[in-house]
Design a protein that fits this description.
This protein has 147 residues and is α+β, with helices and mostly antiparallel strands. It is 38% helix and 19% strand. It is globular. The chain binds ribavirin triphosphate and magnesium ion. The site of ribavirin triphosphate has 10 residues, from strand 4. GO terms for molecular function: ATP binding; metal ion binding; nucleoside diphosphate kinase activity.
Length: 147
């Protein structure tokens, strides 16, 4: 089983899309391990998006991501990272395939609704930035045998 870090960004929260987005991962068959509704500090935003430091959109990205509450989550499943990236769609909504979250609901790269880890290393790093180990819940997920 692979774990990934997903986060509904401030635009997704403000637009009332938490339920819609969470529902897509539930229906896919992934297992929710942890969730937290919170406002990200500047320091946490810098750590989370450290790989983009120095890029022209970095400051805009930091102020956006810490501008209001986000819904941070850990999901688990076979190939969870690639599967959730596929459901989320390409960074720019213009390039996102129809049926993906960003294609269905987003218009602009700056407001693309949700973050998803892009590698096992980043998933591990991001999960540990947002959650303490004891906040990940172990439980039997009865649908696993069907997917
Ligand atoms: P995320 O990390 O948020 O899941 O998005 P991503 O992997 O699809 O895209 P990434 O390259 O990691 O970029 C992080 C976020 O920065 C904003 N961005 N703006 N050229 C631009 O103006 C630009 N490029 C990226 C996006 O909001 C993107 O989600
Ligand atoms: Mg990224």
């Amino acid at each position: 089983m692979e774990q990934t870090f997903l986060m509904i960004k401030p635009d997704g929260v403000q637009r009332g899309l938490i339920g819609e987005i969470v529902s897509r991962f539930e229906r896919k068959g992934l297992q929710l391990k942890a969730a937290k509704f919170m406002v990200i500090s500047r320091e946490l935003a810098e750590n989370h998006y450290a790989e983009h430091k120095g890029k022209d959109f970095y400051e805009r990205l930091l102020s956006f991501i810490s501008s209001g509450p986000v819904f941070a989550m850990v999901w688990s499943g076979d190939n969870a990272i690639a599967l959730t990236r596929a459901l989320i769609g390409k960074t720019n909504a213009v390039d996102a395939a129809p049926g993906t979250i960003r294609s269905d609901f987003a218009v602009h790269t700056n407001f693309n609704l949700i973050h998803g880890s892009d590698s096992p290393e980043n998933a591990k790093r991001e999960i540990s930035l947002f959650f303490a180990p004891h906040e990940l819940v172990e439980y039997e997920h009865s649908i696993q045998r069907w997917i």
